[in-house]
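Now for a chain:

_____
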Amino acid sequence: MFGGIGIPELLLIFGILLLLFGAKKLPEIGKGLGEGIRSFKNSLSGEEEEKEEKVVKTKEIESEIKEEKKVETTEKEKAEA
């Protein structure tokens, strides 16, 4: 299956991990391991940098829209006065 490791060996490894860490810790360990692997893959491919650039651009656009709304409201207040 995995280079000579069969089902019985995988069950044995899982059983030992269950005894060492307990049932509550295994999902947390799996989540942390998955996030670490995902982060490593993203750093190799450079996808994370692209996402960060998009987030920065989105925040810039949002701040520009807020500024335009402020200007519009002040212009309306001046016109009403």
Remarks:
- The chain has a mean pLDDT of 82.
- Residues 28 and 34 are 10 Å apart (CA to CA).
- The first helix runs from residue 7 to 21.
